Amino acid sequence: MTCDEVLTARVLGGALDAAAAAHAAACSRCRADAPAAAALHRTLAEHRTAPPPAELRVRTLRAAAPLVAERAIRPRLARALAATLLALPAIVAWDTGVVRTVYAALTAVLPAGLSAYVVGSYGAAITVLVALSYAAVPLLAARQARASWRPAHA
Ligand SMILES: [Zn+2]
Prior knowledge:
The protein is mostly helical and about 150 residues long. It has 2 domains: about 5-45, no CATH class; about 55-150, no CATH class. It has helices spanning about 5-10, 20-25, 30-45, 55-110, 110-150. Helix 1 packs parallel to helix 3, helix 2 crosses helix 3 (about 30-45) and helix 4 packs antiparallel against helix 5 (about 110-150). The two termini are about 45 Å apart. Bound molecules: zinc ion.
């Protein structure tokens, strides 16, 4: 226990615990500071502040809303990305199977080069669509989070 801790406890009005009381009883500085600390405590206890304006809460929540909404987006974004990335291996495996099956069927009736061009075009188109879909996930998650977030006490 230090003199500063005892002084702080006295100014704040907290009761001194056994160690603080023992220190205060044995310490000449703490005994000397006791009246000043008590006077300061009384002064602080008598000080009153004006209540905040009624609209302060609303203005504060309104000002903080964009930041709070931005923080609310992160968990939703992480969940959305995780959920969509779980499906990606299945999508790739399924499309690979489709490409192989279609290529095998096409080579039965078309030249191999033309069959490769057709399934290659299909594969490229699917790759672009999947990439665009996955690129849209963060944007959609953020938009959905912003739309669903409302200040709790506004
Ligand atoms: Zn002391």
